[in-house]
Amino acid sequence: MRIALFVTCLVDAVFPAAGQATVRLLERLGHEVTFTPEQTCCGQMHANTGYLREALPLVRRYVEVFEDSEVIVVPSGSCTGSVRHQHAMVARRFGDEELAKRAEAVAARTFELSELLIDVLKVEDVGAYYPHRVTYHPTCHSLRLLRVGDRPIRLLRNVAGLDLVELPDAEVCCGFGGTFAVKNADVSTAMLADKMRSVLATRAEVCTAGDSSCLMHIGGGLSRLNAGTSTLHIAEILASTRDPQ
Q1: If you classify domain 2-120 with CATH, what class do you get?
Q2: Can you say how many angstroms the Cα of residue 101 is from the centroid of all Cα atoms in its chain?
Q3: Rounded (10°) CA dihedral 121, 125, 131, 136
Q4: Most exposed among 62, 70, 77, 86, judged by the fewest C-beta atoms under 10 Å?
Q5: Could you give phi then psi for residue 199, rounded to 5 degrees?
Q6: pLDDT-based confidence at 245, cuts 50/70/90?
Q7: What are the pLDDT digits (tens) for 40-62?
Q8: How buried is residue 230: exposed, middle or buried, by Cβ count under 10 Å (0-12/13-18/19+)?
Q9: Computed over its alpha carbons, how large is the radius of gyration of the chain?
């Protein structure tokens, strides 16, 4: 299958290893991955903070870049959620029904990584090897907006050598929430403290998730504690093998 990668702003600018791992994983499974440099932000940040007019050209750009793609993969639950649940809404808000319908068509072919693997490619064992104690944090958008359910867990359970430990209060938000962490710093910090307490209770070496944004928040807190627990995008775990890449 030919799969187009929407890499997302945060992965492109701060956590490129997650995007590279997504490509490496899909190519190892026998698929062709394409990347269009003209892609930009999905507009989630703008839409979530009320800047819908500024989000409109970003919606149009996403549609134009990926309209001819058979399938689009996104290593982010939140950005996938924006494409699926905000793009058509933004277009309709400004009376562009044609763009809204095009956006809906592209959104129907846009998948978060675990969705793509299990629902489209029909694979749960990707042949990964990662001999570490790991806990999984289900990010809010993937859990509540996309409803990915146990797909990431099913993938992790099939990773050779991986000791998967259940995260206490897993469904509780980590406190990031994009600009929420800036506008409500005290509340965000308190929520992060609760999440870190849960992560450390597992004695996991690694906390993984499908969103680099949440991992950035959790990882920043853990690093300041010198807790010995790191964070890693699920794509990087699934791309790991016994043999060096």
Answers
A1: mainly alpha
A2: 25
A3: 60
A4: 70
A5: -60, -45
A6: low
A7: 999 999 999 999 999 999 999 99
A8: middle
A9: 18
How many angstroms separate the first and last alpha carbons of the chain? Answer: 22
Q: Note whether 2-120 and 133-238 share their fold.
A: no
Which residue type sits at 122?
K
CB 78 within 8 A of CB 139: yes
Distances (CA, A) of 92 to 7, 88, 218: 26, 6, 36
- As a whole-number percent, the residues of the chain with pLDDT over 70 amount to 99
pTM: 0.94
Q: Are 70 and 109 in contact (CB under 8 A)?
A: yes
Structure tokens at 19: 């995007």
Q: How far apart are CA 6 and CA 39, in angstroms?
A: 7
Span 1-6, average pLDDT: 97
Rounded to 5 degrees, what are φ and ψ at 67? -60, -35
For residues 31 and 3, is the Cβ–Cβ distance under 8 A?
Answer: yes
Average pLDDT on 181-199 reads: 93
Domains of the chain, residue spans: 2-120, 133-238
